[in-house]
Design goal:
- The chain is of the alpha+beta class.
- Helix content is 46%, strand content 15%.
- It contains 41 helices and 28 strands.
- The strands form four sheets. Strands 10, 11, 12, 13, 16, 17, 18, 19, 20, 21 and 22 form an eleven-stranded mixed β-sheet that branches.
- The termini are far apart.
């Protein structure tokens, strides 16, 4: 059952029968430090990668079949058959070669693209938390080897078969393996019976099963095909049929075989033609291809009709020409390559695309609903304040390292009431105003104001005695025990490269609390290993109730102690007492109000506030106990509040501003308290600093707690003047309601999520975004894209990349279809050119058209697919995903440019045939060169060269659909900006240059010109061709000028862009992202000082102070 070519993973007895020591000895691993790097490399060579055979491979034959059966190839096959049918073997042979070449190139490109996409998708595959070389690290599941020490928790997918040695309330869903509907509770004891089935081996966690509850650690015993899942890999990889496809008459009735057969046939044909599988854009372009195929047949019928259905060889060849002309042969290949380039670029910008449809959808996103912690903020929590009832407030100062409990100082002071806090804030503001008003300028100040300032300058009697490095008290000890034990984070000091440093693992919130406990030598390791505390049960954090509890046995007591931490509102309602020892009081309404006041004071400082509580109980609560959680989490005693600060990321504010400029509204959906959420939202610019400047109904709707939002009916939500920009204490169900509300307002929404319960909202969102660092495997599997750095700015990068790709697809589609329109106009009008035998003489031969479509058009189209993002790409509103790429502007441009192109080519052909010199269309000039065909062949050569150059130069023009080629960057002052712009995309540049030069050998090489392309060498005929090329470019520039002047097809300016212009022009604004330009909390003091010195150097007289740095519009 092992991997091919690799050693079997065998043990003396089955791992579920062995003790952990025997397994670690067999695999030469260590439970604390794991494997060494050398051992990992050895085991990879020995046992292979942790993957199933045939898992995720690219089926080359499916890609080859797809390439051979698209609409473009079918037209060429018909053309080939007609050519052989009329015994034009040169043309037939060339078309055959083109078909083989097209299929080969398309197959190679798509095969490489699919392999690259598989590699990129694997980055978002399930990951594993392992210990190697003594360090906790996260690796892709495929890199796991036997002997790895793996940690699993709720929401994880088990990466390999594990022999568990440490579990806490661990339950796994093994239905995928055993069919057991209920999760299986796990344990660590060795089994005694050898005949146990898979579902009864309770000390084994199986690969691909999902952790539904609790946490655990285990040593990897089997990987890849050696796992239990490897034994049923073949059945796992078998695809399920869609509903209604059964052929069972016994089960579904006598008509079911007919119905099922018809639906299966429909599915097969749709899949074969690319009409039912693929992204929306791929399906849309497949439909376009078959529509054009139908048009090709229609044009062929028109050709036959004009020739009175006298289908001779010449008529058939002309029909071939028109059919080939309307088909953009390279369209699908260019699309595939562009998507791969888009995925690669997103990977570089910290975004992994799981669903190709997300590439198309990102550019149309109108709303982003983001979590706060770790996404908008750094996710590095620091315990800044701890309030203990009856005692006071402990504060941490001068600590910049969230992982070091020895950095900074702890101070203790008395807690203050709301009135005292407001009075101190007012005093500080007056002092600041006084300093600003005396920064070098003397004002005529009224005597009353002078007296007030003098009072402000007088020393204020100290209201609060602050103690540095306070001593341990019973109240503090109780708080520390609860904070440290109701906690899964670890803090340890390690030696690396001869220096000691602190290392942490776990959730940032729990790390912050554990670091605070370590400051007083009350960390979890100290309490458990040195003081004898023993854990008997764990109730993990649940996002629906927003709390976590553990049950411990104290070394000094006989009863159990329940420790609980969580959201203040969810914990305080369970408390009947407050404080400890002599300061323990009953939780009365007045006491509760005082606690909530302290919570609000902390939250308004931008701190995330958690409540810490405990309870003594005589209940017998052991692991996997049947005691209800509600019975355990009651009659608690509140020990204190912890205020944690999570600074916003430096780039968040700029990203929010970029969203506003791009017409995207950002909403924060967080589990934090409303005041905490609002404080951070103000800091990053999601909501305004001064809410009073907004209309009352808008201000009331901007920030809402989830309890209020969830109570509202859909009608009430729809009646709001705006949907909330901040939703606090958010539950998974709240996210779902938010997405539904956005959809009712016809918005296109992206939603972030990281937890198990976030999968419904991620699936419901138009673009589901999972967190790569802290997200669960369940959330990743439900998402469309995964952020590898959990950074909000990466979402904005993904939107920009989605818009770039959308723009480029529009550009190359317009480029390809414009040439097709021009060719069809030329050939349809060419039906009127009839020779002496009354047969139509085509202005372009079939092979000329193939050459132009396959070689001249394809490479510039590839180049357009690689275009960089336009300068203003994030200054436009989101595009309409329902319309897709085929906007009215694109359709109109295609017809206008195609008509100009066709008319110019037709004019050149007419001028040469009927202009200076002898006239005449000759005889039988569609088939071969003769003395009477010299003029027609020369006219064809000129039209061929002219059309080639027009198509190539139009690729440069399509770098922008509205701006002039000679002024692509309106803000540039460079004298030769045009040259810089066309040189910037070197693939496109050389495609145009080399394609333009290829005209000369095609025109002048004997035999190739007359026998293959049906044209001959030319002299003076270059003049009308070149003149018409200039006319075509001038026509394109004039059409762009008309669009810019009249405003046709112009996108409406975003509100954010209007705000940006007003700010640049010193105007007023209240748009999201422009609420404040004040420095964020995350800037260092040195940065602030350098900025201040620069300002002072530039401006002698400082401007009046305005809240937030920007005057707000009232």
């Amino acid at each position: 059952m092992g991997n091919k070519g690799k050693e079997e993973q065998n043990y003396a007895r089955q791992p579920f029968l062995l003790g952990v020591d025997a397994i670690t000895q067999h695999l030469q691993t260590n439970l604390d430090t794991g494997l060494t790097s050398a051992q990992v490399q050895e085991y990879i060579q020995k046992y292979g990668e942790n993957k199933l055979e045939g898992d995720g491979g690219v089926a080359w034959y499916k890609i080859l079949t797809k390439q051979a059966t698209n609409a473009m190839i079918l037209v060429l096959v018909l053309a080939m058959a007609l050519s052989y049918g009329v015994e034009d073997f040169i043309e037939g042979g060339v078309i055959t070669a083109v078909i083989v070449l097209n299929i080969s190139i398309g197959f190679y490109q798509e095969f490489q693209a699919e392999k690259k996409m598989d590699a990129l998708r694997s980055l978002s595959a399930p990951s594993a938390d392992v210990v190697r070389d003594g360090n906790q690290t996260t690796i892709p599941s495929r890199e796991v080897v036997p002997g790895d020490i793996v940690s699993i928790k709720t929401g994880d997918t088990v990466p390999a078969d594990l022999r568990l040695f440490d579990v806490m309330n661990l339950e796994c869903d093994e239905a995928i393996l055993t069919g057991e509907a209920l999760p299986v509770a796990k344990e660590v004891q060795s089994a005694e019976r050898e005949d146990l089935g898979l579902g009864d081996r309770l000390n084994i966690a199986y690969s691909s099963s999902t952790v539904t509850k609790g946490r655990g650690r285990g040593v990897v015993v089997y990987t890849g095909m050696s796992t239990a899942m490897g034994g049923i890999a073949e059945s796992m990889q078998r695809k399920r049929r869609k509903p209604g496809r059964s052929m069972s008459a016994k089960k579904y009735g006598p008509m079911q075989p007919v119905k099922g057969g018809a639906l299966r046939t429909f599915d097969s044909v749709g899949k074969f033609l690319g009409l039912t599988e693929g992204t929306p854009l791929q399906i849309k372009l497949s439909k376009l291809a078959y529509t054009l195929f139908g048009c090709a047949l229609l044009l062929a019928i028109i050709v036959f009709g004009v020739n009175r259905f006298n289908v001779t060889n010449e008529v058939a060849i002309y029909a071939i020409s028109t059919g080939i002309a309307i088909i953009p042969e390279s369209l699908i290949a260019v699309l595939t390559i562009t998507m791969v380039v888009g995925m690669t670029q997103m990977r570089k910008r910290k975004v992994v695309v799981r669903q190709l449809s997300a590439l198309e959808a990102l550019g149309g996103v109108t709303n982003i609903c983001s979590d706060k912690t770790g996404t908008l903020t750094q996710g590095k929590m620091v315990a800044r304040k701890v309030w203990i009832p009856g005692a006071g407030i402990y504060s941490i100062e001068n600590s910049n390292n969230a992982s070091d409990p020895t950095e900074g100082t702890v101070t203790f002071g008395e807690s203050k009431s709301r009135k005292e806090v407001e009075a101190e804030k007012l005093r500080r503001q007056e002092e600041l105003d006084a300093k600003r008003s005396t920064a070098g300028i003397q004002f005529d100040v009224p005597q009353e104001k002078m007296n007030k300032d003098r009072k402000a300058e007088q020393p204020v009697p100290e209201q609060n005695i602050v103690i540095d490095n306070p001593e341990m008290t019973p109240e503090l000890q109780a708080f520390l025990e609860s904070a440290a034990l109701c906690n899964l984070a670890t803090v340890r000091k390690v030696q690396e490269d001869g220096t000691s440093r602190w290392k942490t693992t776990g959730d940032p919130t729990e790390i912050a609390l554990q670091i605070f406990a370590h400051r007083f030598q009350h960390g979890k390791d100290t309490l458990e290993k040195e003081l004898g505390w023993k854990q008997s049960m764990e109730y993990p954090f649940d996002s629906s109730i927003k709390r976590m509890s553990v049950v411990y046995k104290s070394p000094n007591r006989d009863d159990n102690i329940v420790f609980t931490k969580g959201a203040v509102e969810r914990v305080i309602d369970l408390c009947t007492m407050v404080g400890t020892g002599e300061k323990e009081v009953e939780m009365t309404p007045e006491t509760k109000e005082g606690v909530l006041e302290q919570m609000n004071i902390l939250a308004e400082q931008g701190l995330r506030v958690l409540a810490i509580a405990r309870r003594f109980t005589t209940l017998e609560i052991a692991e996997h106990s049947t005691v209800e959680r509600t019975e355990v989490e009651e009659d608690l005693c509140l020990l204190g509040l912890a205020g944690l600060y999570d600074p916003p990321r430096l780039e968040t504010k700029g990203a929010v501003q970029a969203c506003a400029t791009a017409g995207i509204q950002v909403s924060m959906l967080t589990g934090d308290h409303p005041s905490t959420a609002a404080a951070i939202a103000r800091e990053v610019g999601i909501i305004p600093q001064n809410m009073k400047s907004l209309p009352a109904d808008v201000a009331a709707a901007i920030v809402k707690p989830a309890t209020e939002f969830d109570r509202m009916t859909d009608a009430e939500i729809d009646a709001l003047p705006t949907l909330p920009l901040v939703v606090a204490r958010c539950a998974p169900e709240t996210k779902v309601r938010m997405i539904e509300a956005l959809h009712r307002r016809r918005k296109y929404a992206a939603m972030t999520g990281d937890g198990v319960n976030d999968s419904p909202s991620l699936k419901l969102a138009d673009v589901g975004i999972a967190m790569g660092l802290n997200g669960s495997d369940v959330a990743k599997s439900a998402s469309d894209i995964v952020l590898t750095d959990d950074n909000f700015a990466s979402i904005v990068n993904a939107v920009e990349e989605g818009r770039r790709m959308f723009d480029n697809i529009q550009k190359f589609v317009l480029h390809l279809l414009t040439s097709n329109v021009g060719e069809v106009i030329l050939l349809i009008c060419g039906l009127g050119f009839q020779d002496e035998s009354a047969f139509s003489v085509f202005p372009l031969s079939p092979l000329q058209i193939l050459w132009i479509n396959m070689l001249t058009s394809s490479f510039p189209a590839f180049g357009l697919g690689k275009e960089k993002a336009a300068k203003d790409i994030m200054e436009r509103p989101p595009h309409d995903n329902k319309k897709g790429i085929f906007t009215w502007e694109l359709i109109t441009d295609m017809l206008v440019y195609g008509t100009i192109m066709g008319v110019c080519c037709l004019s050149t052909f007419v001028f040469i045939v009927y202009g200076p010199g002898p006239d005449g269309l000759g005889l039988d000039c569609n088939k071969s060169y003769g003395a009477s065909c010299n003029i027609v062949f020369r006219a064809r050569a000129a039209v061929f060269a002219e059309l080639t150059w027009m198509i190539l130069l139009s690729a440069w023009e399509f770098k922008s659909m509205r701006r002039s080629l000679f002024k692509l960057d309106p803000n540039s002052t460079k004298p030769l900006q045009f040259i810089h712009d066309i040189w910037e995309n070197q693939f496109l540049f050389w495609s145009v240059v080399i394609g333009g030069l290829s005209v000369f050998p095609a025109v002048y090489i004997p035999g190739l010109n007359s026998s293959v392309f049906k044209h001959t060498a030319i002299t003076w005929e270059w003049v009308p061709a070149i003149i018409c090329v200039f006319i075509f470019i001038t026509g394109m520039e004039l059409w762009k000028l008309v669009k810019r002047t009249t405003g046709w097809f112009k996108e409406e300016e975003t509100e954010g862009m209007k705000a940006k212009r007003r700010i640049l022009g010193h105007g007023l604004s209240l748009r999201q992202g422009f609420f404040t330009l004040a420095r964020t909390f995350t800037k260092s003091r040195s940065e602030a000082k350098s900025e201040m010195s620069e300002k002072n150097a530039k401006v002698r007289v400082p401007p009046p102070a305005v809240q937030g740095g920007v005057k707000e519009e009232v």
